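Deliverable D4.2, example record:
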Amino acid sequence: MSLPTLLETARKLILSPLVLDIEFLGTKVRAHLPKGYTLDIYYNATLQKYSYTIIKQNKRIMGWDNAPHHKHVKTYPHHFHTLDGEITQSKMKGSPTEDITTILRETKKTLQL
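Output generated by the structure prediction step:
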């Protein structure tokens, strides 16, 4: 993640009442959430690759990314891995600072389950 993107994403995360704390892991920001969940936000500006993943007990619960392996999805290469393990369309644009609002809203819904 570029430093400005990393810092802006981290700032938006820490301002959210949902986020307990954050840590920086190279090109990724990890947000620690209630109930043992974490949110990993990875972004590589050079390659234009991203992955936003909600994790619990080292298992992906759901997430968004643009890995080019689901060509059947209308929003290809952007796609969403649902709670049920399905691959569907994604609203993400591939910019963490723009996508963070949607990520946090969907994460909040997930934690209320």
